[in-house]
């Protein structure tokens, strides 16, 4: 799986995510524009973007280029596992959240994405 980390805390997102990844998975620190292009072309699987509110700059370009049906913001809340599952179930590939919630959101979001993949692989 290839994840692109973007936004204000993109480096922190990548640092939190790297130790959780399985062999063959990658996280790339990039821009929202890079992410939109790669997601549309099937060259990346997911985007995790951060900004101060989790709803503005973290996803603005992606909403415009991918559509609101493929993007989801958790905003300023720390989502429950059920909320994360619901967002992934809806087909979202780009997720925005507040930069001060990276430590909580990234592992929980990755657990859902990785678990879904492992379930699909089984």
Features of this protein?
43% helix, Ribose 5-phosphate Isomerase B, Chain: A, 122 residues, globular, five-stranded parallel β-sheet, 5 strands, alpha/beta
What's the helix and strand layout?
Blueprint lengths: L1 E6 L2 H8 L8 E4 L2 H9 L5 E6 L8 H7 L4 E5 L5 H9 L4 E5 L3 H20 L1
Parallel strand pairs: 1-2, 1-3, 3-5, 4-5
Summarize the biggest pleated sheet. Answer: 5 strands, parallel
Mean pLDDT: 93
Quickly name the level 1 CATH class. Alpha Beta
Q: How many structural domains can be distinguished in the coordinates? A: 1
CATH homologous superfamily title: Sugar-phosphate isomerase, RpiB/LacA/LacB
Radius of gyration: 13 Å
The largest beta-sheet arranges its strands as 2-1-3-5-4
Residues in helix, %: 40-55%
SSE order in H/E notation?
Answer: EHEHEHEHEH
If helices are DSSP runs of H or I spanning 4 or more residues, what is the number of helices?
Answer: 5
| Percent range for β-strand residues | 15-25%
Coarse morphology:
globular
Protein name: DUF2620 domain-containing protein
InterPro entries: DUF2620
Organism: Jiangella anatolica
Question: What do these coordinates show?
Answer:
This protein is an alpha/beta fold and 122 residues long. It has one domain: 3-Layer(aba) Sandwich (Ribose 5-phosphate Isomerase B, Chain: A), CATH 3.40.1400.10. The protein has five helices and five strands, in the order βαβαβαβαβα. A five-stranded parallel β-sheet has the order 2-1-3-5-4, with helices on both faces. The protein is globular. The relative contact order is 0.20.
